[in-house]
Amino acid sequence: MEEIDFKVAPESKIKKKPSYIKPWLGLKYLFKKPVTIKIPYEKTQIAEKYRGFHSLDWKKCIGCNFCGQICPARAIEMTWIEVNGKAEKRPHPKIDYGRCTFCQFCVDVCPTGALGFVSNYMLTTEWREEELLLYDWVPIHPDKIKEINEKYPDYRFPVSKIEFNKETKEVTYYLRDGEVFKFRILGYGVRPPAAAKPKPAAPKTGEAKKEQG
Amino acid sequence: MVSQSELIKEARENGMDLLPLDKDTYELFFGPQHMATENFSIILKMDGHRVVKAIANPGFLHRGFEKLAELRPWYTNIALLLRICVPEPDVPEMIYSMAVEEIMGWEVPERAQWIRTVVLEMARVSAYLFWTMGMAFKLGVYTAGQWAAAYRERFMALFEELTGARVYHIYTIPGGVRRDIPGDKWLRQLKDTVEYVKSKLPDFDHLIFENYITFRRMEGIGVMDKKFALEEGVTGPNLRATGVPYDVRRADPYLLYPELDFEVPVLKEGDALSRALIRRYELEQDLYILEQLLEMGPPSGPYKIQDPRLKNLPRFKVPAGDAFAHVESTKGDFGAYVVSDGGNKPYRVQIRGPSIAHGIRVLEQLLVGARIADVPVILVSLDNCPPDIDR
Ligand code: SF4
Ligand code: SF4
């Protein structure tokens, strides 16, 4: 404090003089065009790489659980999945948007590039249990999301409804373009569930996901 | 559990009576739902329209960051800790990253340093605009508040383009930043925005900073002297308003600040008006700094550090040690103390928000004798930020 070796602004520059008249100059915007965007009728342009919902290439994902380990909100849970009667060999991440902070660390950390993100960010539901299921999903293929986005360019969640059958553990995604996508959840966690241990000689499950796009 | 009689006893020791025993004064509660306090509350003991005693009652936003940060891997903590400072979330990111870099012994690439300086200054400008908005709303000058919010929106759009999110841009990481600059278009946009906001500053002057009513409302209230401010650990614009030329960017330079030319505003009065005027001048200086940075241009090179240890991020380990880093935020000296025990999670992360100094004890003492209409004005002139008190 004793020796000052940086520039200190002179007081005369900082201090201002009170005035009665000057505040009236604020009226000059009275006849200018307002900067408001009328949202339902006009669109905002959001950034190209806006951090929104996730996409997952099921073929690329190797179930390494890196994304689950890095997630600050612990929103990721590994899920064992069976599509069209064939169990996937590796678990896939299931993301809970009730907890997700959209930090996209999981995308950065994914070694295979399976997990990605799209700029969709709108997801609203009411309070009913079955609607709240929308917040918990295994992301779908990025191409599929792109396809839906081309049809409905309003940045909404690509799935309009998710149904979960508690007995058969069957999940049904009703995509926004009318497609229905079904799979079964066999279990959660990094360990394979006892009922559906993937057999070492199981055939490639690639064709099982044709439906998904 | 504390019994009710104990509570009553404790309240009495603090000069408060839960039962209406005190017939001379009455208690007011400026709670979290009040427009002026923002998730913070003060209990005021009033005599007529003067405050006799004020007791700050923070803790509505206590989310336990210190404990939570112990349970998460090093990199992941960024997404958590930035929630400590809402108006300028880049500051907690930055100090945490700087502390981790110090323990690691990393030298941040030049390009990353440039980007970080720009991001910090953009955060400062948007935080000052946010503060202008808050002040205008509390003074009742709604027009200026709406202008400030609209100009801040332009900076938010720039942040969105750069980082992918508007407010909590989880962007600065230990060892650099997460994304490169989107290109020359972004730089041009930033330049335009800076020029535009700079051309609008006289409007704010006309409406609030040169307004006779503002002067009458803010002059001579909440006066703090130099000795008191230094004793209480006040930093930032609040300290500079009492005549102490202290600014972390000059006292303990970091990033590119030694190469930049800017003036530090200092006033002697220490009242609410001088604090507001200092903030107004700093907004101008920050825009000037951004102009200089743009003139410099980003140096070429990588935007984050290359280190083989970063291959396996969840298992990334930091050698044992500790470090302290601090930067100048719009509220004051924001510091982080990070301790590592060599594991893949921090042993302890302590963030020291500037409001902890001026939001509790200083506020309590400044409010004594103030009229009730001055309470929000004093609050906003200190730029009290409840999340960094509670953490
Ligand atoms: S999405 Fe990526 S990180 Fe997550 S389990 Fe699959 S391959 Fe691993
Ligand atoms: S974006 Fe962040 S919070 Fe969300 S699932 Fe990925 S790592 Fe977790």
UniProtKB/TrEMBL annotation, chain A:
GO cellular component: membrane
Biased composition, class Low complexity, residue ranges: 192-204
Keyword Ubl conjugation found: no
Stretches the record annotates as Disordered: 192-213
Its EC number(s): 1.6.5.11
SUPFAM superfamilies, sorted: 4Fe-4S ferredoxins
4Fe-4S ferredoxin-type domain ranges (all copies): 52-81, 91-120
GO molecular function terms listed in the Swiss-Prot or TrEMBL record: 4 iron, 4 sulfur cluster binding; metal ion binding; oxidoreductase activity, acting on NAD(P)H; quinone binding
Keyword annotations from UniProtKB, A to Z: 4Fe-4S, Cell membrane, Iron, Iron-sulfur, Membrane, Metal-binding, NAD, Oxidoreductase, Quinone, Repeat, Translocase, Ubiquinone
Signal peptide: none
UniProt-listed Pfam families: Fer4_7
Highest taxon of source: Archaea
Gene3D superfamilies, alphabetized: 3.30.70.3270
InterPro entries documented for this protein: 4Fe4S_Fe-S-bd, 4Fe4S_Fe_S_CS, NADH_quinone_OxRdtase_chainI
Record-linked NCBIfam families: PRK05888.2-5
Designated name of the protein: Membrane-bound oxidoreductase subunit MbxN
Species annotation: Thermococcus barophilus
UniProtKB/TrEMBL annotation, chain B:
Keywords: NAD, Translocase, Transport
Pfam families xrefs: Complex1_49kDa
InterPro entries: NADH_Q_OxRdtase_suD, NADH_UbQ_OxRdtase_49kDa_CS, NDH1_su_D/H, NiFe-Hase_large
GO MF entries: NAD binding; oxidoreductase activity, acting on NAD(P)H; quinone binding
Keyword Ribonucleoprotein found: no
Domain named NADH-quinone oxidoreductase subunit D: residues: 139-391
Assigned protein family: Belongs to the complex I 49 kDa subunit family.
Xref: PANTHER family: NADH DEHYDROGENASE [UBIQUINONE] IRON-SULFUR PROTEIN 2, MITOCHONDRIAL, NADH-UBIQUINONE OXIDOREDUCTASE 49 KDA SUBUNIT
UniProt-recorded name of the protein: NADH-ubiquinone oxidoreductase chain D
Species name: Thermococcus barophilus (strain DSM 11836 / MP)
